[in-house]
Amino acid sequence: MVDQPASPPQLLLLATGGTIAGRSANSTSLNAYTAGAMTGSELLQELPQLQEVAQIQLAQLTNLDSADLQFQHWIQLVKRIRECFAVSPELAGVVITHGTNTMEETAWLLELLIDDPRPVVLVGAMRPATALSADGPLNLFQAVQVAGSSQARGHGVLVVMDGQIHGARAVTKVATQGVGAFQSPDFGPLGWVDDSGVHLPVATGSRSVPFATLALPLQWPEVAILYGCVDPSLAMVSALFNAGVKGLVWTGTGAGQLSAGERDAIKTWPGVLPLMLRSSRCGSGPVHPSELQDELGLLPAGTLNPQKARILLLLVLIAGMERDELSTLLASIAINA
Ligand code: ASP
What we know:
Layout: E1 10-17, H1 40-45, H2 50-53, E2 55-64, H3 71-87, E3 91-97, H4 103-113, E4 120-123, H5 136-147, E5 157-161, E6 164-167, E7 172-173, E8 182-183, E9 191-194, E10 197-199, E11 223-227, H6 234-243, E12 247-252, H7 260-267, E13 275-280, H8 291-294, E14 298-300, H9 306-318, H10 323-335
Parallel strand pairs: 1-2, 1-3, 3-4, 4-5, 11-12, 12-13, 13-14
Antiparallel strand pairs: 5-6, 6-9, 7-8, 9-10
The structure holds aspartic acid.
Residues 18-19, 35, 65-67, 99-101, 124, 126 line the site of aspartic acid.
């Protein structure tokens, strides 16, 4: 049985594409398909069950594979959600259909920018809509259940996949296939959703939204990610420094370790260094301060994975914050959150 308030909640559905809107030539093609081939309206038509649980207003923002999203799409998304929340008190929440490959990035971006207790829920699918046992319809149904539920209020931006409810801060895609491809390493999912309703057993804490009022410019600073390995290419480091990137995330080995060669490249760089964070390629566990690397100006990204550390750097740079302010921010959102 699905929870049903007297009058179904009003939700905004923002469709952006992805495999959830993907079509393949036949039902057994799980990898050869076109993402973003169906509109949000077609997805809704194929899911009449939604009419029982919500009144949905649809907007098609774009229809792309999420690897092709650009900052301009993020700007539109943020603007749309902020505006709708500001002018529509009757709106219970927002659902965003999104490709799974970069879903965690969009979720984390919104977590840092949208200050409203109403749920914003991202959802996608690992199998195209045309596949045998497509996971999109149930995922979308469950995302709508979560976005319309009062239990989800105050939990921030959420990702609903395969019956699990994840927080934007920790969620990440951990597998290239299979419907259970999302996890929240170190933290675990916040809850789950099924036909008995929405279950979010952990109480909401106070949520800090550091960039709630930040205006997003059309032009974003360039922030790159480097990946650590044995005997890394130092040509990449000087190429990025020469290109004048404003921010750089080092995906270090282990707990965010840089090689002696990389440290040397930083130490001997004659120009202005970008704002730099150290994350890890391990996939879980924190990156703590380390004297050796901190003295080079690198700040530890805590438990933020490299792609989320990059988003933090982007917003910090847009906000014109200095390294010390970033350090304070990291202490509140990256290590303990
Ligand atoms: N290629 C897809 C994307 O848009 C993958 C997916 O949605 O599962 O990210």
